[in-house]
């Protein structure tokens, strides 16, 4: 994946579109139970980028946030429910955008697996 340029993404209904400036600090799969519940999947998959380079191009009024903990907020489209990002209140200079909302799909490496202690046993082996 090119380290310069931008990432582009949108929600399921197309109401929200965003762009994020590269480089990606790291990409991750988070297996915490909050990510599992929000995504309805084994993990939440994210690209960590600078918050200053994250721009909502369309549908800012459709984004709502949920404070899932005292240090984390999850942004999603209030129409279709697509998870768009996770951000830490302790590190406001960074934002983690969801890999599944990127167009074209993310082609960089996933360097981190977080909260592997709650990684579901039903996941297939690598």
From TrEMBL:
<dbReference type="GO" id="GO:0016846">
    <property type="term" value="F:carbon-sulfur lyase activity"/>
</dbReference>
<dbReference type="Pfam" id="PF04828">
    <property type="entry name" value="GFA"/>
</dbReference>
<protein>
    <submittedName>
        <fullName>GFA family protein</fullName>
    </submittedName>
</protein>
<feature type="domain" description="CENP-V/GFA">
    <location>
        <begin position="7"/>
        <end position="107"/>
    </location>
</feature>
<dbReference type="InterPro" id="IPR006913">
    <property type="entry name" value="CENP-V/GFA"/>
</dbReference>
């Amino acid at each position: 994946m090119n380290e310069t340029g931008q990432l582009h993404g949108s929600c399921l209904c197309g109401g929200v579109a965003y762009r994020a400036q590269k480089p990606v600090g790291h990409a991750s799969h988070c297996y915490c139970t909050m990510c599992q519940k929000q995504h309805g999947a084994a993990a939440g998959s994210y690209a960590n980028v600078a918050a200053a380079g994250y721009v909502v191009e369309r549908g800012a009024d459709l984004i709502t946030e949920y404070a899932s903990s005292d240090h984390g907020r999850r942004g999603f489209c209030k129409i279709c429910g697509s998870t768009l990002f996770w951000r830490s209140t302790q590190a406001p200079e960074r934002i983690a955008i969801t890999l599944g909302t990127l167009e074209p799909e993310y082609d960089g490496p996933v360097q981190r697996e977080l909260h592997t202690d709650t990684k579901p046993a039903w996941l297939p082996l690598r």
